[in-house]
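cron nightly-structures :: item 1 of 1
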Amino acid sequence: MFAVLSRAARTGPLVRARTVLLQQRPRIYSKPPKHKIGPGQSFFIMSVFAAALLVPAGWIMHHLPEYRQRPRPPAK
């Protein structure tokens, strides 16, 4: 009896989740781009994105020895 009830308790949420997934319909509509982006613009944007990620990390890595030598503030 317990096995039947535990199996029913486990499959209930799965069945409900499956029906929800089956009822959802995709609502994404796409069109071709109005303005095509050339390779130069793509390279520029990717360079700016890479710099935005790497410059702060490089600045922190460059200043790590300075942070290590700084005396710690006294505990209150």
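cron nightly-structures :: done
The mean pLDDT is 82.
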